[in-house]
């Protein structure tokens, strides 16, 4: 925030950065080679649905956009819309595990539709899920406002996370993806759909 | 490239805030000019009184700014909580901070039973967001309403309200000290200087000017505080995109506030300006319920705008959000 905004108590809406998302496919290859984590093919976009009517339209539009692939052979699976306990809406797109490019394209399409609709400031994060052979869960979370990624690895059923694995992933992918350096922003996304 | 935005700036609020700050600045300049005038009138005792007041006032303001988080936490008896201790609360704050792209303040819980929240700290790195147990456990707030309150408090942090209000009160602190110093030196030092006619006149002059400056800047600071509450309401509602939840939270918290025993309220008074809803009301402030209408004296002195004013603004934002996509606008 600039000096004048502070002085007048104004908050400028923060526009999301979308382009860094395209680093994901190559990072996924690197992650599999170095740490044995494969994409599950599931990715999701989380955003804050504003109250008021026009949003229902945007939501419909986004759903249509994502379902378009269904007609094509080998296209994506239907998209799910869920709401989490914090009141954020999640759009989950499911692909085959080797279709990282298609998944990222879908996620980007959702983002662009939301930004074009004027809802860019409401985008919270995007999440892409991975699993290894021992069925350990890992996801890469993309923070729109920062344009950075961070790893999130839930452990077991409770609210525990595998910090060692998260830091290992940061070490492995540090050169491929822009990682969030401020660790306090690595917030846990318990119960995120598609995790 | 300019994306459509739903964030219409509130020019009226900006204009009113500018006018208030301009007036505060004007009072400040006039006061400084007067002090310099008195100092050049070359009276040792008058000059030293002013100097001591400036040093003491500036020093205390600086200390309260620098330690605002610790002072407020201690005053509220609050404890900083980890994400493990309060996962839900941290979860809400985490997400709001990610949406607003701000660094996360520390989160604290105060054992007070009245439902309220405050945020303080000189900048976002040293800020702390505190909610009372009353807000978390003893009020019937939904999670959305709690989120609205937290977004309001985070907006105070983003707007650096503690800094702005400290700088704004600096003058009033110095003027207030001057009144006291001049008063005491008049009481105890009057006899010694009775041979010096000029000095005997000068001290009451400083005192009079200080009283006037203190009174004016006090009113202006309260006015500024009310504007900044409105600004925080506005930013908070835009952040969560849910002004309705903030409206119902305000209504519930204000209602809860009235049911609390007086003693508890007095203990909370020093923190009043930072609270979500004022814990302490001046007597006669009963017109808030909607019957009053006219601008009463208590409205002039209060740190927070009336419930009606706050709800009116939020309803306006509600309508704006409900409108189909606004035209692209500049950032202001």
Summarize the structure in words.
The complex is a heterodimer of chains A (195) and B (332). By secondary structure, chain A is α+β, with helices and mostly antiparallel strands. Chain A has a single domain, classed as Alpha-Beta Plaits, CATH 3.30.70. Chain A has five helices and eight strands; from the N terminus they run H-H-E-H-E-E-H-E-E-E-E-E-H. In chain A, the strands form two sheets. A six-stranded antiparallel sheet of chain A has the order 2-3-1-4-5-6. In chain A, strand 4 (123-131) and strand 5 form a beta hairpin. In chain A, helix 3 (54-67) packs antiparallel against helix 4 (100-116). Chain A is globular. Chain B has a four-stranded mixed sheet with strand order 1-2-4-3, with helices on both faces. In chain B, helix 2 (44-66) runs antiparallel to helix 7 (161-189) and helix 6 (143-158) packs across helix 8. Chain B has two domains: 11-68 and 174-215, no CATH class; 77-161 and 226-279 and 296-319, 2-Layer Sandwich (Zincin-like). Mean pLDDT of chain B is 76; it is low at 1-7, 281-295 and 324-332. Chain B has twelve helices and four strands; from the N terminus they run H-H-H-E-H-E-E-E-H-H-H-H-H-H-H-H. Chain B is mainly α. At the A-B interface, helix 1 of A face helix 1, helix 4, helix 6, helix 7 and helix 8 of B.
């Amino acid at each position: 925030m600039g000096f004048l905004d502070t002085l007048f108590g104004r908050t400028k809406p923060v526009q999301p950065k979308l382009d860094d998302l395209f680093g994901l496919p190559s990072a996924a290859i690197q992650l599999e080679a170095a740490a044995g984590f494969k994409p599950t093919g599931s990715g999701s976009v989380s955003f804050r649905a504003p109250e008021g009517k026009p949003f229902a339209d945007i939501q419909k539009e986004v759903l249509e956009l994502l379902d378009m692939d269904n007609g094509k052979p080998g296209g994506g699976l239907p998209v799910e819309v869920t709401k989490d306990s914090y009141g954020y809406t999640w759009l989950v797109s499911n692909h085959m595990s080797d279709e990282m490019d298609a998944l990222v394209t879908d996620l980007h399409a959702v983002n662009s539709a939301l930004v074009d609709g004027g809802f860019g400031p409401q985008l919270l994060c995007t999440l892409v899920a991975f699993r290894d052979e021992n069925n350990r869960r890992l996801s890469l979370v993309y923070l729109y406002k920062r344009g950075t990624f961070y790893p999130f690895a839930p452990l077991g059923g409770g609210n525990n996370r595998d910090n060692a694995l998260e830091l290992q992933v940061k070490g492995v992918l540090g050169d491929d993806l822009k990682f969030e350096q401020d660790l306090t922003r690595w917030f846990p996304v318990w119960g995120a759909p598609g995790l | 490239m300019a994306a459509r935005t739903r964030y219409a700036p509130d020019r009226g609020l900006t204009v009113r805030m500018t006018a208030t700050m301009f007036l505060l600045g004007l009072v400040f300049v006039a006061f400084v000019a007067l002090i310099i005038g008195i100092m050049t009138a070359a009276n040792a005792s008058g000059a030293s009184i002013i100097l001591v007041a400036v040093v003491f006032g500036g020093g205390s303001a600086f200390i309260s700014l620098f330690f605002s988080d610790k002072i407020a936490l201690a005053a509220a008896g609050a404890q900083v909580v980890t994400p493990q201790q309060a996962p839900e609360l941290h979860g809400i704050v985490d997400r709001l901070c990610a949406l607003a792209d701000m660094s996360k303040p520390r989160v604290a819980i105060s054992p007070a039973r009245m439902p309220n929240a405050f945020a303080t700290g000189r900048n976002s790195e040293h800020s702390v967001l505190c909610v009372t147990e009353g807000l978390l456990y003893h009020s019937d707030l939904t999670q959305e309403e709690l989120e609205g309150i937290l977004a309001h408090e985070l907006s105070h942090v983003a707007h650096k309200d503690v800094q702005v209000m400290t700088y704004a009160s600096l003058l009033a602190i110095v003027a207030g000290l001057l009144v006291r110093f001049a008063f005491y030196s008049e009481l105890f030092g009057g006899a010694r200087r009775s041979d010096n006619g000029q000095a005997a006149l000068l001290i009451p002059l400083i005192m009079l000017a200080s009283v006037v400056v203190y009174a004016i800047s006090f009113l202006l600071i309260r006015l500024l505080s009310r504007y900044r509450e409105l600004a925080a309401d506005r930013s908070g509602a835009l952040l969560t995109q849910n002004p309705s939840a903030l409206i119902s939270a305000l209504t519930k918290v204000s209602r809860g506030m009235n049911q609390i025993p007086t003693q508890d309220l007095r203990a909370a008074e020093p923190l009043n300006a930072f609270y979500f809803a004022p814990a302490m009301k001046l007597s006669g402030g009963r017109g808030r319920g909607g019957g009053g209408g006219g601008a009463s004296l208590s409205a002039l002195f209060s740190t927070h705008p009336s419930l009606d004013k706050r709800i009116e603004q939020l309803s306006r934002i509600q309508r704006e959000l409900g409108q189909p996509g606004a035209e692209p606008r500049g950032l202001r």
